[in-house]
Amino acid sequence: MDITALNAIGSTGTINQGTLLVESCPAGSSTTSAQTVLTTVAGCTVNGGYYIDASDLEVPSICPIGDYCVGGGAVGTAGGITSCPYGSSTELASAQNSRVSICVVSSDFYIATGALNTPVPCLASFICSGGTPLGTAGGSVACPVGSLHASCAGSSPSTTVTVSATPISVATPDVTVTNTVPSASSASTNVVSMVLLAVSAAMVAF
Prior knowledge:
Helices cover 11% and strands 19% of the residues. It is of the alpha+beta class. The strands form 7 sheets. A two-stranded antiparallel ribbon has the order 1-2. Strands 3-4 form a two-stranded antiparallel sheet. A two-stranded antiparallel sheet has the order 5-6.
């Protein structure tokens, strides 16, 4: 920025001589001062989407990817850059990165109700594609049945059928088999009786 010794006419009409800034505030900054000529670059305020890098205090830098820069600091003072919350990022370096809501949710994260600026890691058996801006709840979808998405691998509910077999007791009746075999003495008695009957019958015949 050019600094030149000028003669400036004050409001009283007198000539004020001193070191004044000839140019307006640098790109990425502005002033609300009523002065028509600024006496120091510190009178310029950094615009949103810019920050002051320590390597060049008098030139605002565009907010880089992954950060947001709300502005409001004085040119000449390093700072004004903030990283997006964990699980989110800005998509590119831009002067539009001026607020936290410009950060978008990363893949495998989602926004829970009640913590709209804090991304949460995706739960098991859910798909979180990311891409939504901070400040909006959502971004988590349950795995559809049969989904081949990496987040759903092995998460499909399995159905286990347990068959309980109750032993059936069959009462087998006791079967007693009795084989009646005539004894030798009984058989002999029967033969004798038959012989006697035959002899008696013969005698009667005579």
